[in-house]
Specification:
The protein is an alpha+beta fold. It folds into two domains: 5-31 and 190-449, 2-methylcitrate dehydratase PrpD; 37-176, 60s Ribosomal Protein L30, Chain: A. It has 16 helices and ten strands. Helix 7 (217-233) crosses helix 10. The protein starts with a strand and ends with a helix.
Length: 451
Amino acid sequence: MNVPITENENDKIVLVNEETNRWVVELLREEVKPAAGCTEPVAVALAAAKVSEVLNNSMSELVIGVSPNIYKNGFAVMLPGVMEAGLDLAAALGSARASAERGLDVLNHLSEAEIRTARERLAEGKIRIELIDTTEKVLIQAEQWSEDRAHHARLTLRGKHDRIVEVIKDGICLEKIEEKSPATEKSITGFEGFYTMKVRDLVLMIDEIDTEPLAFLLEGVIMNQTMAEVGMTSPVGLGTAFALKQRFSKNGQMKDLARLAMTMTAGASDARMAGVDLPVMSSNGSGNNGITAIMPLVAYFELKGTGRSDQIRALALSHLINSYIKAEIGRLSALCSCGIAAATGASAAIAWLDTRDPEIVESTMTNMMANLSGMVCDGAKLGCALKLATAASTAVETAALAGDGIRVPAGNGLVGRTIEDTISNLGRLSRQGMQLADAVVLDIQETFARG
């Protein structure tokens, strides 16, 4: 994909043509989607739904193999509709639904009959989860036999949470995506050119982009705010946002942007991690990324009265920065992408709304990554609400500090000479330095499960 952007001689304006508008819309539609439930168990459910669909919901046995990162993030998070955890339960629910057409919304509004069927299949021992020995982050292999064992289906989901690359029934290939060898975080999107852009160009592009084709991003505001309201008005999940709102409301602090952002962001996470049966708008394959990329901006819009076009531009920038950073650190990682990528996107968008200055946006991003680079991902769970609250409030304060001229200088830890160097360094930390961390977290989870 070519990124046709040309700057004028003063390096002030990026001229965006029709092709640029097209790929921005395509990229954001690919990466910003509704999802019901945490996307790792949802991906397991989607794989199960597809193989069950292929066999017309006839099942005697279902075996799902998952990568360590899928296992880690699906270990403790509650599922929508049942408010219970378990990858085996996610697989059972997906198999009972037996339709993959909803994609990441596969677990949305399960019927009582589907839940009953899923529980019966679990009780009968028909479903098994296995750990795949792989360094791939997003990999699921599903295999199912029909009730009479006469038919067999298997599939592979790889690279993205809804990217089914192969489906085979009775030895005949029904679907196949020809993969580049080796597939990378950047190549699987089909938008490699985006990831070679300079951050400065990306920020300048946002000023020129056609907003109406991106109006669907506003659906994420409504969707995630609805989930946040659940968490703020009832002590679901960890109860973080409910407690914060009660405390902040007593002294008028809910009108402070940082406190409102952390409360709203935590509220959506509280409700989602508890399994509330509502979708959220995800970002780059993660619902919590979507919450973190969107909710600090929703707080900003509420307090500042931001116009519609600027809302769309800010949301687009936040999602794009999230995807840009995650292409380096990995779609799944031992680092908390909510804090390091999604919150950096939100902070960059707030700085853009305040200043329209690419230099200040870069300072904001530098400060965010220098600050939160040590936030570890130890799986999706109720406690994520605390991390998202921290990330959201930090996003707001960091944008303000950047506007005051604060920027962590190059050579301080991971901070490179350019913002692109800093993001690359963060990627090295994730890919090379944190591999053992993932294995240790997984061992801790398995030790707990064994009692």
